[in-house]
Amino acid sequence: FLIVEILRYRISNMTSKISAVLVGLCAATVVVHPFQFTTSPSKRRCTNLRDGSSGGGEQDVVISSQAADTGSWVEQDITEQLATTSTTFLEGANPVRGPSKVLIYDTTLRDGTQMESISVSCDDKLKIAKRLSSFDVDFIEAGWPGSNPKDEEFFRRARTELDETTKSKLVAFGSTRRKNMEASEDEQIQTLVESGAPTVCIVAKAHLWQVTDIIRADPEENLDMICDSVSYLVSQGIQVMVDLEHFFDGYKFDSEYTLKCCQAAVEGGADVLVMCDTNGGTMPWQIEQMTKETIEKFSKTTFGIHCHNDCGLAVANTLMSVQGGVGLIQGTINGIGERTGNADLTSIVPSLALHVGSDMKCKERVNDITSLSRFLDETLNRQPDRSAPYVGASAFAHKGGLHVAALERSPDSYQHVDPAKVGNELRVLISELSGRQNILGKIKKLDLDVGEDVVRERALVILERVKKLESLGYTFEGADASVELMILHSTTTYCPPFRVMDYTAQVYDTNVDSASRVMSKMEQERYHGGVPAGLARATVKVQLHEDPDHQEEGFLNRLEVAEGDGPVDALANALKQALIPSHPELENLKLIDYKVRILDAELATRAATRVMIEFENTITGQKYTTVSVDRNIISASLNAMVDGFEYALKELAASCMIDDYDHMFE
Predict the structure, then answer these.
(1) What does the pLDDT look like over 414-424, one tens digit per residue?
(2) What DSSP designation does 442 have?
(3) Sequence-distant (≥ 6) Cβ neighbours of residue 592 within 8 angstroms
(4) In degrees, to the nearest 5, what angle opens at C-alpha 542 toward C-alphas 536 and 546?
(5) Against a cut of 0.85, is the pTM above it?
(6) Which candidate, 387, 506, 448, places its Cα nearest to that of 653?
(7) Distance between CA 198 and CA 271 in Å, rounded?
(8) Of 3, 86, 104, 95, nearest to 38 (Cα)?
């Protein structure tokens, strides 16, 4: 009863040592659980910031020069308790400080999903949460349970569908209580408590102008909103972080008030204060300076960073803040997020692990970060960014002949890290800018049973052919499969598994009125007078080995007819029907992307067309791309398609020839 009465008492003069001792005694009544702690039910001191007891300057912050400062004493007492009895991330009385140690806080499932064109189901959110947990991030911000039914469903299902380790990392996001009401009466605060998440992160205004002009609150009421909300959540046994929205802009506008917001959060019992570059307009040197100044005033508090990429500086700003002492990083996988995105963890984590040497729980998982990046893109149905640092397909791709020659002597000559350390791979691109070394690298990778002299001779011939074809509109940089086939065809020991003898493609359409045709194709039944509208039919004749294992001589011809939604679809179906009886493994081959580019538009309908087709083996997950150029779009499509099917069967090639391909290189 005495403890409750003391905590309800509104302390007006904190210079009283007796009051300080009593409050400290109450705060020491701690019940500790893994990943969280609780204090005895209380309402922390939130009014001393505006009652005139603090004269400003360093006394306004928790770490003051006076030993009787209760806020400082309370914080120290709690962390000392945790040091001996808890496995919480604070790991003792000392706060987490970068760059030596860093905690990773992923907000892909909350802030990341605010990016334009991104939508994720609850099932996918659960799947992503499991994947993030296996990567060993420290915290997973899963959503705002008070804002939408999907996030409420996530936290409800998480209780039974996620393992204990993943659940221990979940963070529920919310905001401070509303103006002029108790935190315990705020419905949004209650949804955070009911979410079951062991950690809650609440957003609070830390910019005086935002407080007075945007949310139109009294500045001192805003301080109480911060302190009351944190204090109430802590009393419910929840670990609390505070996102200080517009922190850096607010610091530039009125640093004294921004620091008072920090103090209010610490007074309430917050475990981490997160400094937010909400508008993404702060420069890296400003980030470092303001970070250092703030941490100096709150030397016993762990600080975090949350950067947006509006100036393209989110990663740089995050790293500068870590240099300044920040110990917790908020970011998203692949940098997704509202407007231009958030700080990209796929760049930050490997940079800290491989270049800075920071101690992170996920440090041992860095070799899985490329896989994690592509998993997220696949789940969100996004096209991966080929040029993304560390994880992009082009991150370790080399085109210039001089670069490739140097890499042959030492991989460090043009690489800042070994791509294998981040789960990526070195790629040698073939183009008109390539040198012979690029081709030699490709040939060596294929491990062909030919002499060194033949390899060098063929490399020059192939390089000249590449340059000639690129002058006609081909591009081989993203079509490694076509390059490998070109190399294989240049050897007399390679036997193509099949050859297309001839083909035809026809389109039948009884409705040529554009407006009505669009409507008719949207309908389930698309027939007019018994004839399908827009039907395409194709025939393909192929020559194959009579014995698929090539144990006996002899060939067979097979003619197949198929229909499709268009001529290319019909040709793909006919070609597959012709090949599968001899090569049933092609059942697992899927065409997943089809791109067409007009190369010389000024020629109108006579323009050359470049077609690139991406294939995937649904069993192994292997993906590859082929390319072809022709003034006939149907021919270009079929040639790229034939390369794709042949590449899937290249391991079955035998030492024989269906046709003589040597003339291609004369």
Answers:
(1) 789 999 999 99
(2) H
(3) 614, 615, 616, 623
(4) 145
(5) no
(6) 448
(7) 13
(8) 86
